[in-house]
Amino acid sequence: MTVINEGDPEALTSGNLPQDNPSEPAAGDDPFALFGAWLGEASESEPNDPNAMALATVDPDGLPNVRMVLLKGFDEDGFVFYTNLESAKGRELIASGKAALCFHWKSLRRQVRVRGVIAGVSDAEADAYYETRPRGSRIGAWASKQSRPLESRFALEKEVAVVTARHPVGAIPRPPHWSGFRLTPLEIEFWRDRPFRLHDRHVFRRPDQDAPWTIARLYP
Predict the structure, then answer these.
(1) Which residue in the list 67, 135, 166, 197 is annotated as catalytic?
(2) What is the pTM of this model?
(3) Disulfide check for 172: which of 92, 104, 138, 157 has CB 3.0–4.6 Å away?
(4) What mean pLDDT comes out for the span 33-49?
């Protein structure tokens, strides 16, 4: 087992940590606005993909799965991302109707965890986003049988060539098996690194989408 040393905790003082003093969440605050502010700061400090997030699902046996995906939009209705509906994640999202997300921005020493319920986006939303994708990505959405066994890299490249030949020019329609999901949060936790592992944790909770948010501070 590889051991990762934590280092000298006495060296972790407020004097040598990055200055990070955002206003603390309070009752009545909008967690989506706070998330947007943090994401905006991450966009200026992260080396790449500040919208990357871990997406956790469970299979029919209750065994968890997690993978990195990209957030493609958010508003008061939830967090939106896109995928192959026939992939492992797509099948698990459809079957359970629940999922969790985790954003981690190392440059800011901050993290946001989200838990909630899942629903598919509308065809209009999926079509609109699909049209913004590079042509190669649209071809790939047709060529890749995501999560299924692949004989070789050559077999994948052959599928890409077949789809490319089928659509040499012009529009490439969205595959029926490719769309998006919206996670409507019931819980959003904001975590901020502090010295000696005495981190700040604030969690917003609500029993359903129409209920008001409550906020609580948690022990680190």
Answers:
(1) 197
(2) 0.88
(3) 138
(4) 95
Q: Tell me the pLDDT tens digit for each residue of 79-122.
A: 999 999 999 999 999 999 999 999 999 999 999 999 999 999 99
Query: How many domains does one find in the chain?
Result: 1
> Does residue 215 surpass a pLDDT of 80?
yes
Residue with tokens 């990505």: 137
CA distance 130 to 173: 9
- Gap between the Cα atoms of 25 and 22, Å rounded: 9
**For residue 208, is it within any domain?**
yes
DSSP classification of residue 212 = P
In a domain? residue 48: yes
**Residue 131 resides in a domain:** no
The pLDDT score that the predictor gives to residue 21 is 55
Residues spanned by the domain of 193? 30-123+178-217
- Is 4 within a domain? no
Give catalytic status of residue 197 as yes or no.
yes
CATH code of the domain containing 200: 2.30.110.10
